[in-house]
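Page 37, continued from 36.
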């Protein structure tokens, strides 16, 4: 009985350690993390964009594909991140028809 309890507790500890490591991480970084404010200020200046009025059937990715000339396209995560920097408090999945947004351009 004692051996089974010990193994059970050991498994619980190992699972918890793995969970903690994957969610919070345990590696120490010597470089400070940038604040959201500094990311927004520096990134807004460097992202080329065009004001586009949304039409029926438009999605963020379809508009970026039409405007950009680079091949291959950046990842969808990068496109969404740039869109959110240019349009704070706007979800790229909830674009409103008839409203204009700053759409990142990749050349």
């Amino acid at each position: 009985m004692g051996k089974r309890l010990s193994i059970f507790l050991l498994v619980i500890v190992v699972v918890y350690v793995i969970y903690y490591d994957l969610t919070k991480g345990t590696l120490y970084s010597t470089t400070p993390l940038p604040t959201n404010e500094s990311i927004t200020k520096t990134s807004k200046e460097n992202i080329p964009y065009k004001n586009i009025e949304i039409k029926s059937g438009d999605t963020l990715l379809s508009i970026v594909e039409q405007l950009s000339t680079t091949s291959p396209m950046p990842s969808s995560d990068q496109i969404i991140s740039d869109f959110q920097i240019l349009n704070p408090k706007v979800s790229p999945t909830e674009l409103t028809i008839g409203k204009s947004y700053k759409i990142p351009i990749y050349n």
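Confidence is low (pLDDT under 50) at residues 33-42. Flag for discussion at group meeting. The CA atoms of residues 82 and 104 lie 6 Å apart.
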